[in-house]
Amino acid sequence: MPKPIPTAEPFRIKVVEPVKLTTREERAEKIAAAGFNLFGLKSTEVYIDLLTDSGTSAMSDNQWAGMMLGDEAYAGSKNYFNLERTVQEITGFRYMLPTHQGRAAENLLLYVMLAPGQFVPNNMHFDTTKAHVLHKGGIPRDFVVPEAYDPTSQYPFKGDMDVARLDAFLAEHANDVPLVMLTVTCNSGGGQPVSLKNIRAVSEVAKKYGKPFFIDACRFAENAYFIKQREPSYQAKTIAEIVAEMFSYADGCTMSSKKDALVNIGGFLAVNDHALYQAASGLGVLFEGFPTYGGLAGRDMEAMARGLREVLEEDYLAYRIGQVKYLGDKLLEYGVPIIEPVGGHAVYLDAKRFLPHIPQHHFPAQALGVELFVEGGVRGVEIGTNLAGRNPKTGEHDFPALEMLRLTIPRRVYTNRHMDVIAVACANVYERRAAVTGLRYTYEAPILRHFTARFERT
After folding, report:
1. Per-residue model confidence as pLDDT tens digits over 334-383
2. In 3-state terms, what secondary structure has residue 244?
3. DSSP state for residue 213 in the 8-state scheme
4. Cα(first)–Cα(last) distance of the chain, in Å?
5. How far is C-alpha 415 from the chain's CA centre?
6. Segments making up each domain of the chain, as ranges
């Protein structure tokens, strides 16, 4: 019988960028000079860069062609109206405000809606969302399902909100909750998806208490692909149909277009409430720019509009999710402990099981990231105690249940040969894990400390 034809990347490579692997000694010097903070490295010092999938995608020829059609008018750019129409058609939300990136959309939304002392429920807050809540005097609360905290649980939707806990919380604190948020996919929990059943249930609970419901939508298409694969009643639906239903249960969304819109810069806030849009756009003039450019060039808005349509293509999503799974499967073959099942945009190394001898106050995930860079020139990012920050009341480290090193795969950038290199480098560090030491601060910023902190070895 003929062999089945394997699938390959649904694109051809047209432009390449050279990368260079430095020596182990050079890498050890560079990371020490950076204060053992991977954010402090120059990109030219990194061989395979898995720091983030935010703004690191390779754009398509169609997007680059759109860049040449940039209308750089201060007001009324034609690219704005194309982007507005695209967002409306994909999400169903009536009003769209462009921003320079996702955290700017969070900033505008929370400035308008959140008062000091109020709570913001979420499945799991990521760093900038949590920081914006705290910056405005709010109190972030996480209500992800218990399975999310079990690294080896095969529960298919570990990003789901624990609806019963959310309901109980709102029953007690409804007067102090201005909105409910849900992050898809759930970055802080290992890039895990949220089911449509859960999105619908969260919406129903929010409506029960009269609370607006917002989706953090930066990886909405990847989440929709997981729904199609894992939620039986949606297997015959198109990605666009699933996405439309996801958004139909919400009152608006924040979006970092640097993820699923396949662009290097940009974001937006989309809402149904005109009064909310007006309030946010007024602040947007102060923080971002005129409402029809929002801190972006016209060419960037055009690339964003085109990327939002490209990301709905199922063959692209199958390749995208498949490549991340390819790396995860390789690591499991080598016995490297990871968060399972593999999520959508990254493989997360489980630092607690990888380096059990390093206590959380000595930042095992950060130490693991340092060792992986020294070993193979691979730059990941810590999603653990360093990122979690401190409890604003006690000043103590806000120790998370999951201590992870995120290996974030940029979209349409690396091949599976790169994934092989990453897997071997991780396996080599795992073999010598007993010799890895922890870290302690020599500098710690008061807000979002993980970006600029400096360390020394313990």
Report:
1. 999 999 999 999 999 999 999 999 999 999 999 999 999 999 999 999 99
2. helix
3. E
4. 60
5. 21
6. 24-53+314-457, 61-310
Closest C-alpha to 300, from 55, 93, 105, 94: 55
pLDDT of residue 218: 95
Domain 24-53+314-457 has CATH 3.40.50.720: no
- Over residues 275-290, the mean pLDDT reads 96
One-letter amino acid at 185 equals T
We find that the CATH architecture of domain 61-310 is 3-Layer(aba) Sandwich (3.40)
CA separation for the pair 293, 278 (Å, rounded): 15
Radius of gyration of the chain (CA): 21
> What sections of 334-438 are H helices per DSSP?
351-354, 364-376, 385-388, 416-431
Query: Is this prediction's pTM over 0.90?
Result: yes
Element (H, E) at 403: none
Tokens of 203: 């919406």
Query: 97 to each of 93, 220, 242, how far by Cα in Å?
Result: 11, 18, 23
What is the pLDDT confidence band of residue 392, given thresholds at 50, 70 and 90?
A: confident
What proportion of the chain, given as a percentage, has pLDDT over 70?
Answer: 100
Q: Which residues contact 243 (CB under 8 A, 6 or more apart)?
A: 90, 91, 220, 221, 224, 312
